[in-house]
Amino acid sequence: MRGKTIATYGIGAPPQVAFQVTLAKNGIDPETDVTWKPVPFDLVGETVDRGEADLAAHLDPWAYSIEKKFNFTKIADTQTGIYEGTTCCVLGANGPFLEANRDALRRLAEANIEIHEYVASHPGEVAKWYLVALNPAGLRPGRPRGDHRRTGHAQPPDRAGTGRPVQRASEVRGSSRSLTRPPIRRPSPSGSRSTCSPEALL
Question: 5-8 and 55-59 as β-strands: parallel, antiparallel, unpaired?
Fold first, then answer.
């Protein structure tokens, strides 16, 4: 990974932040050992495919889309490795805002949990809405895959602001990010390209 260029859609965007941690935990300085290349959101995969970057860091479902479109190999994501069994995202508020809006924040947290529970129980319905309403580029209809149930228990609202450790909250696959690289390409006897792309980290 040292010396590689990583394409992402924005400096400071969630994929970069997530994988800066991944790199650091593996002894790679995310500031000096790699180069982050900001590119337009929908050109992350194309940038790597053209050879202008070595890896791509993106959000799902776009990460999944470019992985399939360009036959990239997943080498890390936010559901495996150092992130396995942990919470991807949290709702947070500073002390003064919490004190002034405690009831509203409690209702927001409860609604967030309710939404995640609904998604986990109705993956097909949610996927259909997602495809129609957001129409993410490159996403194709298919059967929901994987276990979309939440991985832990949400922090009870009455414990908000106590300073106690936060328990794991709802998590769904759609919140993950992926770091991808192109596969190893070797010429086939006919001259066309064949691909050797063992599953690595994504």
Answer: parallel
Q: Which residues pair with 57 in a beta bridge?
A: 179
Q: Is 176 helix (H, G, I), strand (E, B) or coil?
A: coil
- Confidence at 156, pLDDT banded by 50, 70, 90: very low
Could you tell me which residues are beta bridge partners of residue 180? Answer: 56, 74
Looking at the structure, do residues 103 and 157 belong to the same domain, yes or no? yes
Q: How many helices (H) and strands (E) does the chain have?
A: 6, 7
CA 67/CA 18 separation, integer angstroms: 18
Mean pLDDT across the stretch 31-42? 96
Between 142 and 51, whose confidence is greater? 51
Same domain, 20 and 78: yes
User: b/e map of 68-88 (b: 16 or more CB within 10 Å)?
Assistant: eebebbbbbbbbeeebeeebb
* Contact between residue 176 and residue 60 where contact means Cβ atoms under 8 Å apart: yes
SS3 116: helix
DSSP 28: -
Structural domain total, the chain: 2
Range of the domain at 99: 95-173
pTM above threshold 0.70: no
